[in-house]
Every structure is written in structure tokens, then in C-alpha cells.
Amino acid sequence: VTASTAAGPTGATKFGLNGGLVSGDTVTLIRAAGETVMGGPYAITLDTFAASGNYIYTYNPADFTIKGRAITIVPDALSKMYGNVDPILTYSTLGTFAPGDTAADVVAGALSRAAGENVGGYLIDIGSMGALSNPNYEVTLDGTPWFFSITPRPITVTTVPGQSKTYGDADPGAFRNVIIQGNLAFGDSLTGKNGRQAGENAGSFGTMQNTLSAGGNYALTWKPGSFAITPRALTLRPVGLGKLAGGADPTISFSFLGALALRDTPADVFAGSLGRSPGETPGTYLYTLGTLAALSSPNYSYALAADSPLFNISGLPSDEIPNPPLFVQSLLDTREQFDATRGRNNEDPNNPDNLVLIPFKRKPGRVYYAPTATRSGGSIHISSYDDFGPGGQIPQPRTP
Length: 400
Known about the structure:
four-stranded mixed beta sheet
């Protein structure tokens, strides 16, 4: 009698017999108790042979093996964002469990993946499941290659607000940027350089991404910002001026502090004119920017110096500023005799009375009056400043 070498899944009891028996005789075999893979192999022995006395027989023993029940692990399609922690690699199973067993009784350990943290696909393997799962089962990974995906990390970047330069200065070496959505991982940093729209006049210019990047592990979205070119400051100092009450304002000249930029000249920059606060009565008045600020180059800002002088309107003329002329009748014998030693003859040929206009000057703070004309030593005196030649009737002051 030979027990055939047999194997089967957990719970199977198959035995084999080689040789023939007389009709009606039977032989039964039995194996050692046990239902686990690890407990095997199990010896097969002769159990019952009632007619054994009628036979010459030899028993050849064999072993019974319990093989692990096959369970296939099918990974779920999983991914993570670059920089995040790996999720647990979940799965489903193919195959049946032995009566009374559940997945929790059978599958232990965890799947694993190929090493790496950059964006891409990483092959999933059986990990610790093969070693830690129930040894009564053959737990294997599905034969199809399965990959765990790492996807790009999204960030949104823009220029730090408030960056600027003064008209005529060079741009900064690099613009400062800020991440307004998302964040960098693993100590990563932005590289490259962004830029701005072309232009050098004062104003606002949009910023552009250019070569700015966080690398291939990021999906960078650029939000345009702005960069300002601010006007260059100039300080104006009016030249001290004034006028007599009732006269026209002179053109106000000025000097300036501050450098012109980019080969600009005063003619390129200044337009319009300075002004003053309103009023025509004698006194002092503040200078103003008048039309200069509005009409001059917008690449500059304009301000009056803190120590600017005041504009003066005087009730009395300043030194060497002529009074309205004194009118006298021209009744000399000849016009040649009317020889002014100070000032010039200023006859008005259109005046029917043939009046002569004599400029009459004053010193600041002093008032002079033309006295009644008198004759002295052959000369005619009509004021302390005017000496007319001899002869003729004495001129008399009059109002025109």
C-alpha cells in the first residue's frame, strides 16, 4: 500500500492508494491533524485495513502538504501634491478567504513605493505585506504595474507692492516677489528674474514673470503687479522781486536745487511761470508755483524753497524807479535853451500844450516835491534835481 504524495488548500483531505484489493476489502488512510500551512507537512498513515491478514502488504508512507490560499492585492490609483506627506496606500483584494477568515485576519503590513519626492510616477510594490500577512495565504501584488503619482504644487506669485524708483535712476537689480497663494516646500526658493514693461517716464509699469520660476515641481501662476517711476524732486527759489502799486507784475525768475536726469535741459523741463498770492495793495505776498507745476515736465515734482523771499508791492517807488512824470509848460525862448542837466527832454509832440515830461526820481523812504520854479544866476530851477539853462519864462508845474 502506497500513500500518494498529495497536497491541497487549507481544509482539504485527499489521499491516494496504489495497488488492488479483493472485492469488498477496503483500506483507509489518515493524515496527521492540522490545518495550517506552517504546521505541515502532515504524515499520512494507514488507518484501517480489516482484511490485512489476507494480504502481504507493505505500507509506504507519504506527507500531506497544505498550500497557501492565493490572494491578489490590487493597489488603488493614488497621488499626492509635491511636498505633502504620502497617504496610506490603499488597495482591494482578489481571491476568496477560507471559511471564517476575513481580510483583517489575512492581510497585514502595508504597500510601499519606490523612493523619490519629485513630480512623477513611482512604482508600487508589495512592501511588508508579503512578510506580515497570514502565512496560510499567498498574498501577491497584481501583475499590472501600478504607480503612485506626485503632482506639481500650485503657487501664485506677484510683485511685492510699493516698489519704485526715482525718474532717471537705474532699475533695482531684482524685483521683490511674494507668494500670495500656496507655499514652497522642502526649503525651495524662487529662481530667475522677472521684469517690467518698457519705459522711463514717471508712471506705473506692469511687472512680468520673465524667467522667474520655482522649478519643475511647481505649477506657478503669475499675477501681474506694478512698478512705479516717481517724479524727481526739484526745489525752486524765486528771485526776490517787487513792483510799485498799480504797476504790472514782472516775470518771476528762479533758481533750482536738484539734478536734471537723462540729459534733460531746463528747456525740456520747465514751462509756465511762477505766480504769487493775489492782491495789489502795498505789502508782501507769497510766491506760488503758478502755472509752472501743471505745464512743466511730469517727470519732476516741484516745490518752493522754504526760505523763498516774498514779493513786495511798494506804495513808494524803489531806488531809481521814476515817479509818474512832472508836467511843465515849455515857454522858454528856444527849445535849445531847455537843456536838462539831469534826465532828458521828453517832449510830447502830440500834446497841444507842448508839455514836457520830466522824469522825477525818488529815494526809498524820502519824498521830494518840485518847488515853485525860481531864477538864480541866470538858471531856472524847478526842483533840487533838475537844472535848466538860462533864458525864457520860468516853467510852472501843472497837472496835465
